[in-house]
Amino acid sequence: MKINICILAILIVLCTFISGHAVPKGSHETKAVYQSGAASVESGYLETAEEIEDSKLQSFKDKMLRYYKDWPKPSKSNEPSPKDRPLSPKEVFLTFDDGPSPNTEKILKILNDNGVKASFFVLGSCAERYPDMVKAEYEGGMAILNHSYSHNYSMYKSLEGCTEDFNRGRDVLKSILGIEPLSFIRFPGGSDNRVSNSNTMKNIRDTLAGKGIDYVDWNVSSEDASAAKVPADKIRSSTISQLSHRNFAVILMHDAGGKTTTVEALPSIIDYLKTQGFVFRTFSDITTAEYNEMLKDKIIDRGAATK
After folding, report:
1. What domains appear along the chain, each with residue ranges and CATH number?
2. Which of 83, 234, 251, 259 could form a disulfide linkage to 61, CB 3.0–4.6 angstroms apart?
């Protein structure tokens, strides 16, 4: 009898140990590996081998639901579910690249004073210098997305180099926020930049899009990066001229350290958008309708061979 009791106790301990160490499907402890030619590239964006195979069939709303639970919710509790909300007559996504920097704090104040949310494509190297600014963006209800770690165009020499740089940027954001960044990225210089080899860039675009990682461009540029310091009036006029015939806009701006005139131009740009009836949206609660509109306008996954 005593032997049976001992055996039973041992079995209970073994079962407890095994169940406590099992890794569930989809766990972030399981790294995904996908193939490009002879090279294997690790990516934390896709968690399991099954997800890699299923990503082409996975609907947008299913892919995004895992992120909604961690990101700031819509301010109104009676707002429709993101997957169901139709497009507004006019919508705009304000996006800022290359921060954070001391200018980011000024931009956040302008946004908050105007009751407006925006999306920040953050550099990991800058986030390491200003982690409190990244937290302030998140706590203020802004969307935070990966813009690579270094912004060094040498990453475009290979798929492996590009993936490594973006993974490093993702890891920095995750360490600061404690959650996985949203599954949208923006390439430095855009997805059709002229500094990379066209064939290599096509391979990078096709591989990421084929694995469920969406890259985001824009359809309105503020032109604030066309020179080291662009006058605020020119930033405003360039932006407004491109908005005059659009009802759906993703605007490119920058919050890097040298972009003080972008800060100066922002209030008047927001005023114009409000008077024209634009609704301000972000990537943290993007809807299926908005996602499809971006695909149609080639703002998301522009030039990718597969989706």
Report:
1. 89-296 (3.20.20.370)
2. 83
User: Does the structure show a pLDDT above 50 at 39?
Assistant: no
Spatial contact of 193 and 73, defined as CB atoms under 8 Å apart? no
Q: How far is CA 269 from CA 87, 109, 206, 237, in A?
A: 22, 15, 35, 9
Render pLDDT for 152-185 as a digit per residue (tens, 0 to 9).
999 999 999 999 999 999 999 999 999 988 889 9
* 49, 33 contact by CB (below 8 A): yes
Report residue 137 as tokens. Answer: 């963006």
By the 8 A CB rule, do 301 and 213 touch? no
pTM above 0.85, yes or no: no
Q: What is the pLDDT of residue 304?
A: 65
Structure tokens at 200: 């290599």
Centroid of chain to Cα 211: 15
